[in-house]
Design brief:
The chain is 35% helix and 23% strand. The chain has 246 residues and is of the alpha/beta class. It has a single domain, classed as Vaccinia Virus protein VP39 (Rossmann fold), CATH 3.40.50.150. It has a 7-stranded mixed beta sheet, with helices on both faces. Helix 5 packs across helix 8. The protein is globular.
Length: 246
């Protein structure tokens, strides 16, 4: 397993925000937490899910981790001949040079790329799997722009696997306005469109309908979509497959 740092990309508004947050002290504290929760229920659940997605391929894969952080989930990959981990924070990538649970990692070649996956340039049709855990639809909007970028990076039949925070998550402040909007969305379909968009926060939260619409528009076919409630959020776990355009 090797690691390198190619040239950095420019940064979006979201990338700049994360870059300022995840500096050295923060990255060190984050890594300590990652080591502590490695065998906790949330990391175990997400890692098992990611490993199952890898097993769905009948061949070795090239994988891309969007927002890889300290390498929290590198250990979960199976039959990966190549892994590229992208993150905006050089401090987090420095931690990822010795990834979480490094002894369990079976990746063939690992490349760490300092960059913003909303702006970075990557080879088209190169990856079999693009995944993101705890980043998309939480710290970075899940929207058509992102979905179309992922579509370009995937080979035909490749998969996009990601987690996102559901708009009904208990972790989102339950203001009176939000409660009223959720009630109207459920009871008055005629006004649900604008209200749902506000509840979704521009893609910082998701629901099943929104995920399906975004992925379909980008050219994906849904393979699985499930909810998981942890002690942190109500999550959506999604796997979608790239459909070749006719």
């Amino acid at each position: 397993m090797s690691a390198s740092l190619p040239q950095k990309s420019s940064f979006s508004e979201w990338g700049e925000r994360a870059r300022r947050l995840y500096e050295n002290d923060y990255a060190e504290r984050y890594r300590r937490v990652d080591d502590e929760i490695r065998r906790g229920p949330l990391v175990t659940r997400f890692g098992t899910w990611l490993g199952t997605v890898c097993d769905s391929f009948p061949h070795d894969i090239a994988a891309l981790d969007l927002g890889c952080g300290t390498g929290r989930y590198f250990w979960a990959l199976r039959q990966a001949r190549e892994l590229v981990g992208v993150d905006v924070s050089p401090a987090m990538l420095e931690q990822a040079r010795a990834p979480v649970d490094a002894g369990a990692i079976v990746v063939g070649n690992l490349t760490l790329l300092e960059g913003d996956f909303l702006t970075v340039t990557l080879d088209p049709s190169h990856f079999d799997l693009v995944y993101s855990i705890g980043v998309v639809g939480e710290h970075v909007p899940f929207d058509q722009l992102l979905a179309r970028r992922v579509y370009q990076w995937l080979r035909d039949g490749g998969r996009f696997a990601f987690t996102a925070v559901h708009r009904s998550s208990f972790s989102i402040p339950r203001t009176m306005k939000r409660r009223a909007a959720e009630h109207l969305v459920q009871t008055l379909p005629s006004v649900s469109g604008p209200l749902r968009r506000r509840l979704l926060g521009g893609g910082l939260y998701v629901d099943e309908q929104y995920i399906g619409d975004v992925l379909s528009d980008a050219g994906f076919a849904m393979e699985s979509l499930e909810r998981h409630e942890s002690d942190v959020h109500l999550h959506c776990l999604c796997v979608a497959r790239k459909v070749a355009r006719g």
